[in-house]
Amino acid sequence: xxxxxxxxxxxxxxxxxxxxxxxxxxxxxxxxxxxxxxxxxxxxxxxxxxxxxxxxxxxxxxxxxxxxxxxxxxxxxxxxxxxxxxxxxxxxxxxxxxxxxxxxxxxxxxxxxxxxxxxxxxxxxxxxxxxxxxxxxxxxxxxxxxxxxxxxxxxxxxxxxxxxxxxxxxxxxxxxxxxxxxxxxxxxxxxxxxxxxxxxxxxxxxxxxxxxxxxxxxxxxxxxxxxxxxxxxxxxxxxxxxxxxxxxxx
Length: 250
Description:
Strand content: 15-25%
Helix content: 10-25%
InterPro entries: AB_hydrolase_fold (IPR029058), Plant_Biomass_Hydrol_Est (IPR050955)
Number of strands: 8
Region (Disordered): 1-43
Structural class: alpha/beta
Distance between the termini: 32 Å
Strand order of the largest sheet: 1-2-4-3-5-6-7-8
Number of domains: 1
Largest sheet: 8 strands, mixed
CATH architecture: 3-Layer(aba) Sandwich
Keywords: Signal
Protein name: Phospholipase
Shape: globular
CATH topology: Rossmann fold
Organism: Chitinophaga caseinilytica
């Protein structure tokens, strides 16, 4: 399930030590928060399990108001971005969008899986706790998305920890329909293409049907007849996606 290999984007320089490139850039305890590097930087997980590195995007105005809390999106990549080089994740679709869009108004957290691993909940939970502690996050506006392998990860994390997120956008993935009722009250916008040759569209259809069979009324499903495995380009270009997301809090 290799997504994203054909994305081409101008490399984003990774800052050096002291600006987020050589470790985790966080304020010093007991002192006023120091300004953090805005834009895209590479960061380390403080107490890593399988996931050791992540990309962090901070909006340009992040440091202007010390009391402002920001919505955050966790973005899970596909098989094509696995490895030991965090720079590979810079080509993931939502990271590309954040870098190019001067009006992108979310903290974006994009972790990386090792080449032999899969998205696992314990690693993601460690990262979640770190992000909630270290950044000016609005705890009621935490969102989750992912494509292909990342779509699987979205379904898994949502079904394991449904209270973590205000809304989620799984793209060309698959979950566990037998546990669909767990998500009957969660806002979800699911994307898939009918002619997907890599992850059969049945994966998304079965999840949506299972949630709706439990009485779920907050699940949206967007299926296109064509497009192959690339359902993420259309999903992240959808003009109402972020407006839809913003309406939900937890």
